[in-house]
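ok so I'm stuck.
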Amino acid sequence: MKLLFSIPSGYHLRELVLPLRRHLEANSGMTEVHLITPAAPIAKDIFTEFGAKFFYHENPKDDAGHRELFAQIKPDRVITNTVGHDALDEPIIRIGKELGIATITFIASWDNVWKIDRLIASGIKIAVADRFIVWNEMMKKHLMRTFSTIKADSIAVIGAPRLDYFTHTDKIATKEEVYAAFGFEDVSRPFIHLATTELYPMKYLAKALCDGLKANQIPNNPYLYASIHPGGEVEKYKTFEDYGFTVRRSPGRNDAISVPSFKYAPTEKDIYFLIGVFTHASVLVNHSSTVALESLITGVPVINVKYGIPFDWWNWYRCMVYRDFQQHYDDLVSDGATYVVKSKKELLSATADALVNPHAKDAARDITVKKMITTTDGTASQQVLNYILHI
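replied:
not stuck anymore, here's the structure
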């Protein structure tokens, strides 16, 4: 059997094909795995962990080029991570269907059905695959509302292959390795992880946590660590150091890579280190990022900040963070698995409580993790591949 995957960016590589790699290589019935990707010319720099079963092709320039490539490869399945959120996926699905090849879209993230709604509303061209794989039941129901022609038995609820890495406990970075990387000398001290995004400024939160430490409102003398989103720039967050934070970009970005969409393309080593950061933090503070779910998986208390910079109402109520809480993020917070804070006072109180009572929300946390990712035993990758092979 031959499979063809679309990989328009390093982000999409992380979501599906990288965690499927071992299973693809181990499957004796899988003769060839073809990857259509802008990174084909630099495959040796990006796909360093991939074996001889994998073949790389640049994205064709037009429909005729796609038909020619498909005729050359003769794939049995065509798999994408989007319906057109990345424009390179749209012709791959469309031409695959035109040629009678089974097409599957794995919805790469738990918020992406909302993104599909926005694509449709904005008139951006999309292509609907024959079948879909999603993380959870909420996504399935939403997808059926978005596309009334999709039948329930065409959507498989499995989970997220990349979250299988969280079960590989022997490969996850140790506490000593994480602390050494951040220059934290005392492993008995906890650390607070402030996860930044590019959706809304977060300096006010760094200052609030610093103020809380100075006023002895936060116990146990924790280190302060701020992670920079792979798409962010380090210089933008240097001022966090004035508030006592150690600042690092999350692993996986390499600015020396010549293909812009693959400057972020984490290796498995990068992924295991990042999971170590989630695992060994004592509390995570963020707005509305997926890192909250990743921290919940590791059993770490999570604080979601649902208030903006003082007197910045105009920008706060129009930013994507505020929108997230009105849309997909309600699924994550509705069971009480995280602290949702609406003021500096609540932030400091929640931080103190999370440090002193780290297991207070364990029951709700377990419910939410199972609800959100469905498969929690590390088998999502194998289940996804089995579904692809046996449809």
